[in-house]
Design a protein that fits this description.
By secondary structure, the chain is mainly alpha-helical. It has 4 helices and 2 strands, in the order αββααα. The longest helix is centred in the C-terminal third of the chain and has 13 residues. One of its GO terms (biological process) is regulation of membrane potential.
């Protein structure tokens, strides 16, 4: 017998809708838990995984600050800007040099 939901919906429906919407658009993205202190990543798109060279399993539960993508040319200023965006919960556009798993620069257009 199927389970009836009625007016009760899963708290994950919102997240599921975001994932579905952006996956259809072939976007490279992460979703993190902003309530927890370290802001652990709870979802990694296939495109993000392909772009960075990290498997989804390697990314899940890492900090949304994405320190695993920092490298030699990642500036302290860009890191501080990212951290500030998380703390103030403001939408921000940040330019940051980040690296793939094989230490090559990630390149993309605007």
């Amino acid at each position: 017998m199927p389970i009836r939901r009625g007016n009760i919906t899963s708290p994950n429906i919102f997240i599921d809708n975001i994932i579905q919407k952006f996956d259809i658009q072939n976007r490279n993205f992460l979703i993190a838990n902003a309530v927890m202190e370290d802001r652990p990543i709870i979802y990694c798109s296939e495109g993000f995984s392909y772009l960075t060279g990290f498997d989804r399993g390697e990314v899940i539960k890492k900090s949304a600050f994405c320190t695993f993508l920092y490298g030699e040319c990642t500036t302290n200023e860009s890191i501080a800007n990212l951290e500030r965006a998380f703390i103030t919960v403001n939408e921000s556009k940040i330019q940051m040099i980040i690296y793939k798993q094989n230490d090559n620069l990630i390149e993309w257009g605007e």
